[in-house]
Specification:
Blueprint lengths: L11 H4 L5 E2 L1 E4 L5 H10 L10 H4 L34 E12 L11 E14 L3 E13 L5 E13 H7 L1 H6 L7 H16 L21 E3 L4 H10 L8 E4 L47 H6 L9 H16 L4 E9 L9 E11 L8 E9 L5 E10 L3
Antiparallel strand pairs: 1-4, 2-8, 3-6, 3-9, 4-5, 5-6, 7-10, 9-12, 10-11, 11-12
Helix pairs in contact: 2-7
Length: 394
């Protein structure tokens, strides 16, 4: 491939759809308790409100409810369909960040989610990782079957030329090989993991007036990440299950973006027609764009050092971390995360939060606590930063 200065990106498919509603997948069935349990298991979110029937029936909710993070699992395409719009030949994509707003209605078993998607913005920048790179954003409005507003999400996807990223090998140079963990190190990780989920298992909510700027949230750890954990995460997104969704298009939109090929390199696209007979042909892990997450060889073709995790689940880790601290009477209202690096196979992810501000009068009409969260790997490298607002009882 030529030097990045001579590489031209054809953005005509993007430009003509800017500001337009787009299509995507819609799940056939409502959310059920197995879906919820599968999701928290995949995210290692050991909050009994979301999986333990006996515990949940004794709470004010009266039953298992979904965590706030689960809205993305009930959407199509890891929640990025509204941003991954337009064909760019030879491209691949990764998540660059996510922003979420929640409106106070919880997802419960029996709820079915519906989505309005809009492609809102894009820009082009030169990056060390891949040369000319497109940053795209889109909004999704999530409602249940009654029309209740559940959440709004806005991911940023990073689309780049796969061969250019492979040539540059930025992650290969910086990430090295997977760490080999000793028995003592793994025991320390497991103890920290246990300490976190026992820190507020009962769901008690700190009150706004007693929380102070500078207060630290309990540290959380996830990992070591593995092919097994990445695969478990992938399978918890309901749309990845055979026959679980159908394609939809918004009314009144000419040529909406529904299930078009984004321009994947060979070996990373779906076979939509063939999948009508053999659903593995659009499975994603066996065939399709997600196979680099669990295959080191495929990962290297798209500029990654080795198997790596999902941006959508990193954002969900952040939401779950905040919700665990906020308890049953708290609510995560807003979360804005920026992804600096994937979580690679063999790494662990440490999550640390600190109260940055208290907002007596917020745009939500309730007092909020602002919390800064940083995720790092075992070497102290920052992979995610986020700024969040959490409602607490007053």
């Amino acid at each position: 491939m030529a030097d990045s200065e001579t590489v031209q990106l054809d953005l005509s498919e993007l430009e003509r759809r800017l500001g337009q509603k787009v299509g995507g997948g819609q799940l056939w069935e409502p959310c059920n308790k197995t879906d919820i349990r599968r999701w928290v298991m995949a995210l290692d979110y050991v909050n009994p409100l979301h999986w333990d029937q006996r515990f949940a029936t004794q709470t004010k909710f009266g039953d298992i409810i979904a965590p706030q993070s689960m809205a993305v699992a009930l959407d199509y395409g890891h929640g990025n369909n509204q941003a991954c719009v337009g064909r760019i030949e030879g491209q691949h994509m990764i998540f660059g960040g996510e922003e979420w707003w929640w409106y106070g209605t919880h997802i419960r078993p029996g709820d079915q989610m519906f989505h309005e998607r809009i492609f809102t913005d894009y820009k082009v920048a030169e990056t060390k990782f891949a040369g000319p790179t497109v940053f795209q954003r889109g909004d999704t409005i999530h409602r249940n079957q009654r029309g209740d507003l559940i959440a709004r999400s806005c991911p940023t996807v990073i689309r780049y030329l796969a061969k250019e990223a492979e040539k540059r090998g930025v992650y290969a140079a910086s990430s090295g090989v997977a760490k080999k963990w000793t028995t003592a190190e793994l025991a320390a990780v497991e103890q920290l993991r246990r300490n976190w989920f026992l820190s507020n298992r009962e769901g008690k909510s700190p009150h706004f007036e007693v929380v102070k700027v500078g207060d630290r949230l309990p540290r959380r750890v996830i990992g070591p990440h593995s092919i097994a954990s990445f695969t478990t995460e992938y399978r918890a997104f309901i749309f990845n299950i055979w026959g679980s969704f159908y394609w939809t298009a918004p009314e009144g939109v000419e040529d909406p973006w529904v299930c078009q090929d984004m321009g994947w390199i060979e070996g990373f696209s779906f076979d939509e027609e063939g999948a009508m007979i053999d659903p593995r042909l659009r499975d994603g892990l066996y065939v399709g764009p997600s196979r680099g997450h669990i295959d080191d060889g495929r990962a290297s073709e798209i500029g990654m050092a080795r198997a790596y995790g999902y941006g959508a689940t990193m954002a969900a880790w952040n939401t779950d971390y905040l919700a665990m601290w906020a308890g049953h009477d708290g609510l995560v209202r807003h979360a804005k995360s920026e992804f600096r690096s994937p979580a690679f196979e063999g790494d662990v992810t440490y999550i640390d939060g600190e109260v940055a501000a208290k907002i007596e009068r917020s745009e939500w009409g309730v007092p909020l606590v602002q919390i800064r969260v940083v995720m790092t790997d075992q070497d102290g490298k920052t992979i995610v930063t986020s700024l969040n607002e959490v409602e607490l009882p007053y």
